[in-house]
Amino acid sequence: MFSGIVEEFARVVALRKDEDNLHITLSCSFVDELRIDQSVSHNGVCLTVVALPGDGTYTVTAIRETLERSNLGLLEVGDAVNVERSMRIDGRLDGHIVQGHVDQTAVCTAVSEADGSWYYDFEYCVSRDLARRGYFTVDKGSVTVNGVSLTVCEPDSRPVEGNPNELKGTFRVAIIPYTHDNTNFHSIRKGTVVNLEFDILGKYLARLASL
Fold first, then answer.
1. Given this model, what pLDDT does residue 207 score?
2. Is the model's pLDDT at 32 over the cut of 80?
3. pLDDT for position 211
4. Which candidate, 138, 177, 134, places its Cα nearest to that of 155?
5. Phi/psi class of residue 54: alpha, beta or left (left: φ > 0; alpha: ψ in -120 to 50)?
6. What is the greatest pairwise CA distance in the chain?
7. How far apart are CA 168 and CA 155, in angstroms?
8. Which long-range contacts (CB under 8 A, 24 or more apart) does 200-203 make?
9. Pairing between strand 153-160 and 148-151?
10. Mean pLDDT of 103-119
11. Above 80 in pLDDT, residue 179?
């Protein structure tokens, strides 16, 4: 369980394919505090630490389903990855409840400056069935983008042309300078693929309403 308050961004040091799995080796400031089997969020994806070689790096493994649902399969050596360790029970709950189970990806469609901050626009496609189950964004609701807990602005959805069973969703988020500089939002451009996790509370409410 995570809060969506990213601690920092880690750097990809090495990538190794192993059949359908991808072993990702990264470096970050809190490597010495990690332990084997610990859960760490990577761009919003909960992954388990599987190796600590003692050289200032650690390794996690992403399976095929994770690679298909997220942007981790697009990583290259040197890329910045947002990381967050699991929540402490004795701490304050900043952000919102984030499971680390990425639902799907979205694409950045625009980045614009706004008097020292930035607006990022994203677009994603979702089936009507999943939308009825809470896979959507609502105005002033929460969404997790690359592991960052954010507030939704100006959400919209419309049918995909030629496919009435698919919806194209869009939304905007505002990014303050601290978040811009201390997460990989500083490297997101038009066309960048990001990970989305829709609000779990919205999914529960949608499920309850369908009973």
1. 87
2. yes
3. 83
4. 138
5. left
6. 54
7. 11
8. 200/97, 200/98, 200/99, 201/96, 201/97, 202/134, 202/136, 202/138, 202/141, 203/133, 203/134, 203/135
9. unpaired
10. 95
11. yes
Q: How confident is the model at residue 96 (pLDDT cuts 50, 70, 90)?
A: confident
Which residue has 């004795």 as its token pair? 90
Mapping DSSP onto H, E and C, the string for the chain reads CECCCCCEEEEEEEEEEECCEEEEEEECCCHHHCCCCCEEEECCEEEEEEECCCCCEEEEEECHHHHHHCCHHHCCCCCEEEEEECCCCCCCCCCCCECCCCCEEEEEEEEEEECCEEEEEEEEEEEHHHHHCCCCCCCCCEEEECCEEEECEEEEEEEECCEEEEEEEEEEEEECHHHHHHCHHHHCCCCCEEEEEECHHHHHHHHHHHC
Residue 10: both structure tokens together: 């880690």
Query: Cα separations (Å) of 202 from 22, 137, 207?
Result: 31, 9, 9
Q: What is the pTM of this model?
A: 0.93
Residue with tokens 């650690």: 58
User: What is the spatial distance between Cα 192 and Cα 125, in angstroms, rounded to a whole number?
Assistant: 15
**How far does Cα 98 stand from its chain's mean position?**
10
Q: Which backbone phi and psi does 65 adopt, to 5 degrees? A: -60, -40
